[in-house]
Amino acid sequence: MSGRTGEVTAASIVFIGSFNPKIFHPAWFASEELLSKEEAKAASDVEVTGLYAKFELEWATIEVTQERFSALSNQAPMFEALRDLVLGAFRLLRHTPVRAMGLNWSTYLPVDSDEQSHRLADKVVPIEFWRSFLEEPKVRSLTIEGVRMDSYNGYARLRVEPFARRGKSIFVIFNDHFDFSADEEPRAARRATDVLSEDWNPSYDRASNAISAIGAVL
Question: Distances in Å between the alpha carbon of 23 and those of 1, 93, 206?
Fold first, then answer.
């Protein structure tokens, strides 16, 4: 379902680093009391090897390769639970190398017609500029990137796709990217857990404000 204007409807936490996928079995999360035994047993699509791990809960999907960890939830009431699950796991795995991370917040904004999508594009992109060499130009995807306003290295990136293939809707995603590769201290998971502890709510607020601004243009 598309969210109301400014409502984030999906959240994901992505770590880039070096991981051992076979650790991330639902049973491990249960043994560390990060999931209940009932939740772990109810997990579906469980696949755990030395190269790849994935499982699905009713409210989240975990997917891990040797270079990438991802946790996703499409249920807004469970965003905090998602954060706590990842935070708990990597506090235990605190020596895991993490070079970068992203907090990703997204939604689909409903529109009444293609014309409404066109109006959004016309307001944020000078479409007339393109008419000199393109016939009936349309904005299919727009990405805007800004520097971080805190003490971390990285960037904030907003992507808008006015013609999303999901009925009459516009896809908006806000990527809060944190880069730890230049840190003088060892690139361990502690930096990532610091972000989850301290910057989760501010990141959500930044994303929500950006999404609300896009929605207000419609």
Answer: 34, 10, 33
By DSSP bridging, strand 10-17 and strand 68-73 are antiparallel
> pLDDT tens for residues 142-151?
899 999 988 8
Provide the b/e sequence for 51-70 (b: ≥16 CB within 10 Å): eebbbbbebbbbbbeeeebb
Query: Is 175 in contact with 70 (CB distance < 8 Å)?
Result: no
Buried b / exposed e over 192-207, threshold 16 CB at 10 Å, is: bbebbeebbeebbebb
> Strands, DSSP E only, in the chain?
10-17, 44-48, 52-56, 61-65, 68-73, 98-110, 142-147, 153-161, 169-179
Q: What distances in angstroms separate CA 215 from CA 14, 83, 116, 199, 212, one per listed residue? A: 26, 26, 11, 24, 5
Q: What are the sequence ranges of the domains in the chain?
A: 97-217
CB neighbourhood size of 19 (10 A):
21
Residue 176 near residue 63, CB atoms below 8 Å: no
How many Cα atoms occupy the beta-carbon half-sphere of 159 within 13 Å? 13
Closest-CA residue to 195 (of 93, 40, 87): 87
Q: What is the pTM of this model?
A: 0.91
CA atoms within 13 A on the CB side of 136: 0
Our measurement of the distance from residue 121's CA atom to the centroid of its chain's CA atoms, rounded to an integer in Å, reads: 23
Summarize pLDDT for 161-187 with one digit per residue, the tens. 876 555 678 899 999 999 998 875 656
